[in-house]
Amino acid sequence: MFLKKNILLLLCIFFKLNYCNQTFNEINQNIYDNNENNTIISPIIKFNNKNNAKKNIILGIIENYNWDIVSPFFESIIKVNFTNCDIVLFVRNVSEKLKNKLKNIGIIIYEIPEKYKYIPAINCRWKMYIEFLKNKQNEYNIVFSTDVRDVIFQKDVFQYYKNHEPFLGVALEEDTLKEVINKKWVKDFCGKKKYEKIKNERIICVGTIWGTFDKFLNFSIIFYEKLSLYPNNIEQGIANYLFYYEGLFKDCLIKSDNFGPVMTLRLVRNEIIKFDSQYNTLNLRGEIAAVIHQYDRKFDVTKKVKIKFCPDLLIKEENKTFGELRNIITFFIYLESLTIVFLLKIALYLCKIKRK
User: Fold this and answer.
1) Domain 55-319 of CATH type 3.90.550.10
2) Using an 8 Å Cβ cutoff, are 223 and 126 in contact?
3) Which residue among 1, 20, 97, 323 is least crowded, i.e. fewest CB within 10 A of its CB?
4) What is the pTM of this model?
5) What pLDDT sits at residue 302?
């Protein structure tokens, strides 16, 4: 009896949560579908046509991390030895020991203000970027925003964009927006009707976004305006909607696939990932990729990253990486609809037992 009551309670909770989520999505869809002229209203900052800045900048954020988690990122930066480049990191809830260690290797550290403590880190970073960059037009040329935990550098990515016309760069993943997680994110934001119009587009990953100072800052302003209204972790869904449905920066958007300088590995088949003799991961053109994102989704890549950048962190071959565990979680998200059916069958089975 105790077991049956708990199963039924679980079923009720599941349906309640599912109903709330569905209701929220329907509200979003009604808002957007009833306003076909729902366009970007953010003020665009005007810049001088000429930016003479020679320095570039890498931006990132960390929260609740220790050195072991982020060391591949920073060790890779040390090995690449960027010239004329600031590395700026916004931090929250990390130890003084870690902050001092990062400062000692030349990282510029900024504490996230207490007033932003309730903003999730993935959203808060865009707010911090805006506040940091808004008065620095003459200091930086190209801005590269990146995740930290699952990214490493193998070459100077800025070398690909010397003397480039104003642009915004994004990385493409190896699937379309029909992929289960990204489909959910986009639909949660804009509803089914608008999702259907862009579902065949390649996934744009927001873990790495870069561009000339003016384009990057204006993107950050527009993007954060939307993010601040949706604190439920659908950052990538919003970005894909803005780029594909609203055509944000379509005149200067550079889409970099896995043949280019930035590789995004989650959806790349294991058998086509290649390495050179120095443990560098090669892009699909067979060249050393400048940036590897989501390396922890691939066991072989993770192992080579640690051999090259932090051998003391080498994991045993039989252990699973954090990224592989995320892939397992992804699988369960994919089975969400089947879960409803399964729980219904359990409830019906228990009812039959009770009648007997």
Assistant:
1) yes
2) yes
3) 1
4) 0.79
5) 94
